[in-house]
Specification:
By secondary structure, this protein is α/β, with parallel strands linked by helices. The protein has a single domain, classed as Glutaredoxin, CATH 3.40.30.10. It has six helices and seven strands. The strands form two sheets. A five-stranded mixed sheet has the order 5-4-3-6-7. It has a two-stranded antiparallel sheet with strand order 1-2. It is globular and about 75 Å long. The N and C termini lie far apart (59 Å).
């Protein structure tokens, strides 16, 4: 009789793990950066006349959105961000991610030329699809993305007034997600 209880116990344990796993959202990947200071960087903006650093946003709650012109999911998310930016006063900063195209690299152009090509591509894309960003910066080689633990684009972070990451979303931001998670979090963070 005891011989049958061990396999039955193991089976029930597996069923419990499966049930818990099925309830998890694969886009809610735990990040070791949540509740830690946002990694510092200084990158050129799309306008080309300035640089941006997360230090520039200290004292306010803000959204950091990683996007790319080559990203199909970003096209799905983008109208949601544009509408959100029009309705809310929360600043959204964009990170134009890995915009160096194969033809740019193959041309063996200088870094300045590659930056200019990527900047032009990003500016045209934002003019075509709308610009929800107070500023957008260029992460051509993806180093800032690595520091933020970017798995892929789009990804979105909510950063508090002290510069601490309070939320990370891997994948598309939807109106439902904004209403259910992001806006309530922003409200709480703005009160603190």
């Amino acid at each position: 009789m005891k011989k049958f209880l061990i396999p039955l116990g193991l089976f029930l344990g597996l069923v419990v793990f499966l049930a818990v796993g099925l309830k998890l959202d694969p886009r809610e990947i735990p990040s070791p950066l949540v509740n830690k200071p946002a990694p510092e960087f200084s990158l050129p903006t799309l306008s080309g006349d300035a640089t941006f650093s997360p230090k520039d946003m200290l004292g306010q709650v803000w959204m950091f959105n990683v996007w790319a012109t080559w990203c199909v999911a970003c096209r799905e998310e983008h109208p949601v961000l544009v509408a959100f930016a029009q309705k809310n006063s929360l600043p959204i900063v964009g990170l134009s991610y890995k915009e160096i195209q194969p033809q740019d690299a193959a041309a063996k152009a200088s870094d300045d030329v590659k930056l200019q090509l990527a900047r032009e591509r990003s500016v045209v894309w934002l003019k075509r699809h709308g610009n929800p960003y107070v500023t957008s910066v260029m992460d051509l080689d993806g180093r800032v993305g690595i520091n933020y633990g970017v798995y892929g684009v789009p990804e979105t972070y909510i950063i508090d007034k002290q510069g601490v990451i309070r939320y990370k979303r891997v994948g598309v931001v939807t109106p439902q997600l904004l209403a259910d998670k992001i806006l309530p979090l922003i409200e709480v963070l703005n009160k603190s």
